[in-house]
Design a protein that fits this description.
The chain is an alpha+beta fold and about 130 residues long. The chain contains two helices and seven strands. The strands form two sheets. A five-stranded antiparallel beta sheet has the order 1-2-3-4-7, with helices on one face. A two-stranded antiparallel sheet has the order 5-6.
Length: about 130
């Protein structure tokens, strides 16, 4: 599991992650580590942390799996990429798209979680 990162943005003191997470193992291609994040025990997103790129690929666990790579395998729909070393000014470019998908497509309400909180939730789910 990842132990270090180039994380730049940290949550304020006393902040708590609103998402639960579980380490799944290495991804299918050996490029990183997979974590499943849940909201109140209900599956939400799969996070694939790639330390080479300092990025987390976010896949939606609420969408059906789709054919990938010309039908060679199936995977959940990718709904965004989060850059670990994003500055506070760049975070709004990463997370709103993911949050919008969850809200618009699956009617998931993330009450009280803004884009900066969601960013920190995702990084914390990956132990970064």
């Amino acid at each position: 599991m990842p132990q270090e990162s180039n994380r730049v943005v940290y949550p304020p003191e006393g902040w708590q992650n609103s998402l639960g997470s579980e380490f799944i193992g290495p991804d299918r291609f050996g490029n990183g580590q997979m974590f499943d994040a849940n909201l109140q025990g209900s599956p939400l997103v799969r996070l694939i942390y790639d330390p080479r790129d300092d990025q987390i690929t976010v896949r939606c666990l609420r969408c059906d799996q789709q054919d990938q790579a010309g039908g060679r395998f199936q995977d959940y729909r990718m709904i965004g990429i989060v850059s670990i070393n994003a500055t506070a000014l760049l975070v709004p470019m990463n997370t709103p798209r993911i949050m919008k998908h969850l809200s618009d497509v699956h009617e998931v309400t993330l009450d009280g979680i803004d884009d900066m909180d969601f960013f920190n939730c995702l990084l914390d789910c990956c132990d970064l």
